[in-house]
Specification:
The protein is of the alpha/beta class. About 35% of the residues lie in helices and about 25% in strands. The protein has 9 helices and 12 strands. Helix 1 crosses helix 8, helix 4 packs parallel to helix 5 and helix 6 packs parallel to helix 7.
Length: about 270
Amino acid sequence: MSDLRLVVVGAAGRMGRMLTQTIPDTLGVRLVAALEAEGAPSIGADSGSAFGQGPNGVPVTSDKDAAIAQADAVIDFSGPAATVAMAKACAKAGVAHVIGTTGLTAEDLAAITQAAGQTVVVRSGNMSLGVNLLAVLVEKAAKALGPGWDAEIVEMHHKMKVDAPSGTALLLGEAAAKGRGIDLAQHSARGRDGLTGPRKAGDIGFAALRGGTVVGEHTVIFAGMGERIELSHRAEDRGIFARGAIAAALWTRGKAPGLYSMADVLGLNGA
């Protein structure tokens, strides 16, 4: 079987750089385009050399349509607006779209869901095996413990992260809400300051910390009367997300159009 041809969106970003470094070292895949926004200083440069690696022969480009035309799958860790535009373009071309972008609004998600009617879309707030396994454990714990145990999610990331709570924190919050059979949007506490009054029963709380170069740390706390359970994951290397995204792209081969998650890719749904 021929190598899966991949396009990386947001190639100059933290995850984009990691992907352009990881793809050439991964069997079964080949980098065919590195996309950046029009006017970016790296346009036209070799994507390997531009992002601190050896030359790879793949130039950085802003030509989205030309990149998609030679791709089997697109891996996208860019920004909400760029991701929605890419979702529409991938749907039109019938090219698989792997989305790790966070900070997406309800409107953005609706557009991505619509695109998934025409092509394979894998979207996740986190592409690592560990986090997705953690989400399964959180769902099971939330179901077993019930709303009598207070649920809090604490996350920390590097100081340059622009969205909060993180996509991973929201993924874990959705898992807890699913375990309880509730709507996270209706039972979510995102900020506490001043005289807030007692904690609202049944809420799932979020606390976002930012600083330094932290790749990602997440802890889900279930606090009961006189006891506490903590489930944690610490990412030490962005390579785990790149490898997960590449695995997701390989998984899309031969799949029917639809919206999938990393739990589908890893066979964790129904675990």
